[in-house]
From TrEMBL:
Keywords: Oxidoreductase. One of its GO terms (molecular function) is oxidoreductase activity. InterPro entries: FAD-dep_OxRdtase, FAD/NAD-bd_sf. Coiled coil: none annotated. It comes from Alloacidobacterium dinghuense. GO terms for cellular component: cytoplasm. Pfam families: DAO. SUPFAM superfamilies: FAD-linked reductases, C-terminal domain (SSF54373), FAD/NAD(P)-binding domain (SSF51905). This is FAD-binding oxidoreductase. Residues 6-348 form the FAD dependent oxidoreductase domain.
Amino acid sequence: MNPTYDAVVIGAGIVGAACAYELAREGMRVVIVERDIVGGGATAAGMGHIVVMDDSPAQLALTQYSQSLWNSLSPALPSSIEYDCCGTLWIAADEAEMIEVRRKHALYASANVPTQVLDSHALAEAEPNLRKPLAGALLVPSDAVLYPPCAASFLITSAQQQGADLMLGKTILSAEHGKVQLNDGTSISSAYLVHATGAGATSLLPDLPIKKRKGHLVITDRYPGFVRHQLVELGYLKSAHSVISDSVAFNVQPRRTGQLLIGSSRQYGAEDSAIDHSILESMLKRTCEYLPGIANLSTIRAWTGFRAATPDKLPLIGPTDDPTVFLATGHEGLGITTSLATARLLADSILKRTSAIPIDPYLPARFALETAHA
């Protein structure tokens, strides 16, 4: 008996949407199964930053590759996605952090990522509402922002235009050995099953090395021009490196609507999606330390989401021990940025062809191998 589909993509967040889009483009018969709505979950709690990051060579390769794919796709994106190539300013509070600015500048140059070092005066001109004085910043003009839920919807719609089916409001009881069983009694057979449910992936695959990481976001009313670039303190990197403790960092993003999106926070071990007012207060206090005038602006909403974190801060992309089951999860705070590259690597793996970048650093088997050699 032939399978009903070539691929079942589990999850309609930004990563699942990108995988469905990529596999459907390859001519595969695809169905996307989602428990809730398109672009909900961690996608709705993402800042929408398309950013090159350099926590490791593998992270740099994946983010740079994916940013190039977003750049190629950007002319086709509808205005509702609010794609804006506003650039990122990595802000140095003092001379010690300027050393990090210069290190990043040299590293990005070696990877052919254009950057510019701004001194204190140039930074004040670029962003007049930042506190003064600050030591300087690294400008990465190729970074962009977008509105993640609409980006996921666009990719799902594009997949459907290529013939993909979409099943919403369906809870999956099991997904293995080429078969998906739904709670309504429906059974779907498929050559490949792609788990792209972020932090929820452990509900079906409990042994995955993934932990939930809770984050808070706040958005303001419309204040066009108050901020011109994505603003991130260099201390954000220290915050992102912590894998055991709660942390906050200054991260503000301008939106095409004129609103300001405020992050960022990280919490391990939090299971409740309710606002944690102590974390929120710390996050906003940190924001006001860099942007004092933001205290006079009106915020209109705060919310949370759970991101999927792995021990080495790299996603899980590729096959598992079950030859029908592939993973596209564990992206934590870089799911929006790396969604397109994840989908391309996944399609390359399924179709057994060479990828533009090596897939080895992201293969799920890396954790099994570490255990075997321990």
